[in-house]
Fold Iron ABC transporter permease.
Amino acid sequence: MQKNRKYRYIMTFIFLGIGVVIFLALNICIGSVRITLSDILGALIGQENNETIARILWDIRLPRTLAVIILGGALSLAGYLLQTFFHNPIAGPFVLGISSGAKMVVALVMVFFMGRAVRITSTDMIVAAFVGAMLSMGFVLLLSRRVKGMSMLVVSGVMIGYICSAITELVVTFADDADIVNLHNWSQGSFSGMTWDHVKVMAIVVIVTFIAVFLLSKPLSAYQLGEVYAQNMGVNIRILRVFLVILSSILSACIVAFAGPISFVGIATPHLVKKLLGTAKPLLMIPACFLGGSVFCLFCDLLARTILAPTELSISTVTAIFGAPVVLWVMATHRKERAA
């Protein structure tokens, strides 16, 4: 039995790793301009004769694809942390209104600074998104103490999201025409326009946060078995909760700052990964969720770019198509388990 479990774990990680490599290659090769594997190899070793292909590869597709891998993994990991924190199978940055709160503050900052011709850095965007995420998270935490049951918490989060979205739309209404275009594209969720500077900043933030989350694997394992059990094992519940709130907010902020709000990835991917692994152990779930989120977002971004080319769909539109059925399945199975 133990050997079968280890074999399943190894095969799951191999499957997810291969998925990342395959969709990485497809996202780089497929587009309005076809790039072959030989073109990629030539560009990597500096022997690419076609300057146009080299620029498309280095300046557009490679940074965008790496951003999808990093932010997709971060989004899935944020969803896993929130589901663990609230003991709620459909908790996630988008559903609980955390992404909407981050979007609201980023929109306020963008309109304020753009109207004064002030340049906004990647760090400014992350800080603004983090403030918005913490504000929404604070309201969710307050409501979670008063409302009972999974459905009421989700409804509360949705309402917070609607309020934040309404404020964002109000801000956009009073923005300049040029700013409205940028805000509209960003607010719909998109990985376009990524640069190497963006990739560098998001990689540092996400890698540091990932390491911090991975170091919490043992306390999270005890926390999953109940607060009383965790306390008996010597886990400081209050400090653990603070870390979970801060780390999930940092991940959500990084995603919203660079790609806007993206729906359903944070909810659906952890459940799909858990089904593949056959276990909920954080030591395995944390890296597997990251890889799973990367695969899911790479697949959805590929469809968003190509399915109606040259028109590019919002990434949230595609993730909702594939993620929403998973959420419905989770809710149905959770209800059956409670009834049993």
Summary: The chain is about 80% helix and 0% strand. The chain has a mean pLDDT of 86. The chain has one domain: 2-339.
